[in-house]
Amino acid sequence: MKTFNLTIRTPLATAFNQEVNEFQIDTETGRMVVLPGHTDLIGSIVFSKVVIKFGDTVAKYYIKNGVLNVDRHHNSVEVLCMSADEASDVSLTSIQDYLAMINQKLANHESLSEYQIIFLKKEHFALKKQLDQMTK
Fold first, then answer.
1. Could you read off the pLDDT of 12-25 as tens digits, one per residue?
2. Taking the model in full, what pTM does it have?
């Protein structure tokens, strides 16, 4: 069975680095499935639940704020993101608490820079999307 190397990195650690058969992800342009031999591609990620298939194993992660690079020449996919959490490690309560904190900061935005406001709005969007997926 054909494979490619998938690496998911955050500023703190490498969350995943292994040969895989299939990688499913949402970019800003839509949902995609990456298989061995996929054409070169660069994509932006605000939020995505990703599905990784390797052998008989399926791994699921939640990824926020990142960039996807598919490199056909090197038979690899690299995701650089701010956070990558295994789906089993994410609780509904922790997401709701974080969303409440973001809403509070956005409501009192006078002391925030334009960059901070934009970042928090993107985080808000990503968290709402994540909550929608988790409560389906």
1. 999 999 999 999 99
2. 0.79
